[in-house]
Design brief:
The complex is a heterodimer of chains A (283) and B (268). By secondary structure, chain A is mainly α. Chain A is 75% helix and 0% strand. Chain B has a six-stranded mixed sheet, sandwiched between helices. Classes of the chains: A mainly alpha (283), B alpha/beta (268).
Chain lengths: 283, 268
């Protein structure tokens, strides 16, 4: 059977597609490019409607201005050579990264219902690149929080280390932390599949992740069972790295290099798992 | 590995089971290059499942399928480069502009960067959306969103375009504009179009051939005219009832129907 066809498609030919063989380098290049396209998409959305970034900023401000100021006067928590408010500032930043990232995965639930997930999956985009791109956009959102926390901290007299190199590392730690928690959130969303169940689990894990960490008190004060949880909680390593990098006189207990290694490994592992689960959401 | 004489789509005993339920049952089907092919059937007949397998979203349980000679199971990433897909739901991103929706998908489909912007503008133009390119999609009408989505899926000049119920929930005028676009794509780029529909007049107006699916199997295959003659009836509606019998009342699970209604509601 023949049909009245004027022109053949100029690209996307079957021959090209058949000849398309992925080498590790072309895969990596394609992976990075596609992940950045997904991040660009999310960044454009934020540009159209940045309301969430502003409303999210309220909570860390309260933590610093109310909780921090009061507890600094009480002097109940041993924080070494630095004032309590300096000790908790990295914890508040880590917390706002956690809070803005941990509910990020819910977008998967409605993107599936809208067919957006299916459209991404039908395109020649590696599944892990989609997940990595989303992780990076959660990082972008988190950076807006970091900016607010750092500025506020400087204003209330926290001795923030403003050395550019330290700040660059703070950016990296924030991006990694956001990648870890947003991808964890995406994995939960892929597994539970409904908004209600997701919100329930999100609420359930947020506070334990926050309190079972070194964010607002040192791990040394904890009972042993809580210590055990704190050690496997990625937030602990986000806080620990930020404490060493952000605060003049702040001490990273495990060393920034160790923290970074742990966070990179956890983020990579979660993104790999997330990619597999994300592919199944489109079915 | 491929040659020009390969069918655009060929399935070989394509089967998908969900537990005990067989959604698609040994489907054998061929669609030629440049053809507009319509897959019809009651809710739950297996149309969407078939499209999901052909677009590599869902792995078959057994059997196989080839797009332009490429095996969907062995070469999924190659297949994704040459197909376009518009799901049943309204899937354009409402919180982006029409222009941005096209731009992002152009990048995901690796449209050459030097051509991307001109292609996006041309697509907006072709869909009659030029004036609305910088408006957020949430301000679009249902017909405009559908046209945008089809433009989105055709930016990379796919060989085969899969449209899952492209006109569900649209008013007659919007429906007609979508039909014009589909025939326009075929005329301009030789795109093979594989669509599903419930609407007999749509199948009659658009499709070179149609296949009617019934309980996961192909009940009948032919041109609209052939089907009417074979059933000895005047309209395609009657032919449809002839070939699918009384199954219509029973077909369609909760989720299918919920999805139809959601799409219809969003189209308002």
């Amino acid at each position: 059977m023949t049909y009245n066809v004027i022109a053949r498609p100029q690209d996307a030919s079957a021959e090209d597609a058949a000849a398309y063989v992925e080498s590790p380098t072309s895969y990596l290049r394609g992976f990075a490019k596609k992940a950045l396209v997904i991040t660009e998409l999310e960044a454009r959305k934020l540009r159209h409607d940045p309301t969430e970034l502003l409303t999210r900023a309220i909570q860390p401000m309260l933590w610093l201005l109310v909780f921090g100021e009061v507890l600094t006067r009480v002097r109940a928590i041993p924080t070494g050579d630095i004032p309590y408010i300096d000790f908790m500032t990295p914890g508040v930043l880590a917390q706002s990264v956690l809070f803005i990232s941990i509910f990020y995965g819910i977008s998967i639930v409605w993107e599936r219902d809208l067919g957006i997930v299916q459209k991404f999956l039908a395109s020649p985009t590696p599944r892990t690149a989609i997940v990595a791109g989303k992780a990076l956009s959660a990082g972008l959102r988190s950076l807006s929080q970091a900016l607010i926390v750092v500025v506020l901290a400087v204003l209330i007299g926290v001795s923030v280390d403003l050395d550019p190199l330290s700040l660059a590392f703070v950016v990296i730690v924030v991006l990694l932390g956001a990648a870890v928690f947003s991808t964890l959130s995406l994995i939960i969303a892929c597994l539970v599949k409904t908004r209600d169940r997701f919100m329930g689990i999100g609420q359930m894990i947020t506070m334990p992740l926050f309190f079972a960490s070194n964010a607002i008190y040192p791990i040394s004060l904890m009972p042993d069972w809580l210590k055990a949880i704190a050690y496997v909680n990625p937030l602990t390593y986000v806080v620990d790295a930020l404490r060493g990098l952000m605060i003049t006189g702040g001490v990273s207990e495990y060393g920034v290099a160790v923290d970074l290694t742990i966070l990179v490994a956890v983020a990579a592992g979660l993104i790999a798992i997330g990619g597999r689960l994300y592919a199944r959401v489109g079915q | 590995m491929t040659d020009e004489n390969k069918e655009a789509v060929r399935t070989d005993k394509l089967t998908r089971r969900f537990g005990d339920y067989t959604a698609v049952d040994s489907l054998d089907l061929e669609v030629s290059n440049g053809e507009v092919f319509g897959l019809l059937g009651p809710n739950g007949a297996g149309k969407t499942t078939t499209i999901k397998m052909l677009t590599t979203l869902l792995p078959p349980t057994s059997g196989g399928a080839f797009i332009e000679g490429l095996d969907i199971a062995k070469r999924p990433s190659a297949v994704r480069r040459i197909v376009g897909y518009v799901p049943q739901m309204l899937s354009a991103d409402a919180s982006l502009t029409g222009y941005e929706n096209l731009l992002i998908f152009g990048k995901l489909y690796e449209v050459p960067p030097d051509e991307l912007k001109s292609r996006v503008r041309k697509a907006l133009d072709m869909m009659g959306l030029s004036e609305f390119g910088d408006k957020l999609v949430r301000t679009y009408s249902g017909g405009m969103i559908r046209r945008l989505e089809i433009a989105q899926s055709a930016l990379h000049r796919p060989r085969v375009l899969f449209l899952d119920e492209p006109t569900v929930g649209l008013d007659p005028i919007a429906r007609r504009s979508v039909w014009d676009m589909i025939t326009g794509l075929r005329r301009e780029f030789g795109t093979t179009v594989f669509l599903t529909t419930h609407l007999m007049d749509e199948a009659d107006a658009l499709c070179d051939r149609i296949g009617i699916m019934h309980r996961g199997k192909l009940a009948v295959l032919g041109s609209p005219q052939e089907l009417k003659e074979q059933a000895g009836v005047e309209t395609l509606d009657d032919a449809f009832i002839h070939f699918t019998g009384d199954s219509i009342e029973k077909g369609g699970n909760y989720r299918d129907i919920q999805r139809d209604r959601q799409t219809a509601r969003r189209l308002g």
